[in-house]
Design goal:
Blueprint lengths: L3 E7 L2 E3 L8 H10 L7 E3 L5 E8 L9 E4 L1 H26 L7 H18 L9
Antiparallel strand pairs: 1-4, 2-3, 4-5
Helix pairs in contact: 2-3
Length: 130
């Protein structure tokens, strides 16, 4: 049996009171940029485990260290790739398939793709390359 030193990265709640901002989004960005120790309090709040960094005890060069993403982190990482694929599909479909040639199911799927893209991009700057 091997001994390991494990660092777990877990979701937590940080409370930053009285942030002055023009919008809720700006207040959220300001708080997100603040260091953890500037929070009035922190709460574990049964946060989701995102990942773990596992080191073999005594391996001071960290040559055997591994990072393990838990399910929530794997899904979070996949979401950006999925969004890009859906955006590409929707853009290509809009260009290549005129509305009069679309089947009802295709049109509904394309509409849902555009709605999902809009929801994912709400409040975000355009990150697509020109």
């Amino acid at each position: 049996m091997t001994l390991y030193n494990v660092h777990v990265y877990r979701e937590m709640r940080l409370y930053f009171p009285t942030i002055e901002a023009c919008t809720p989004e700006e207040a959220a960005r300001i708080a997100a940029d603040r260091p953890t120790d500037h929070a009035q309090y922190t709460e574990d709040c049964d946060g989701e485990n995102l990942a773990a960094l596992v080191d073999v005890a005594g391996d001071n060069e960290f040559t055997q260290s591994v990072t393990i993403d838990f399910e929530a982190e794997r899904l979070r990482k996949a979401a950006a790739e999925l969004l890009e694929v859906v955006q590409t599909f929707a853009e290509q479909a809009d260009q290549d398939c005129p509305a009069e040639y679309r089947t009802r199911h295709f049109a509904e799927a394309l509409e849902q793709a555009h709605a999902a893209i809009a929801k994912a991009m709400a409040g975000q700057p355009d990150r697509r390359p020109a």
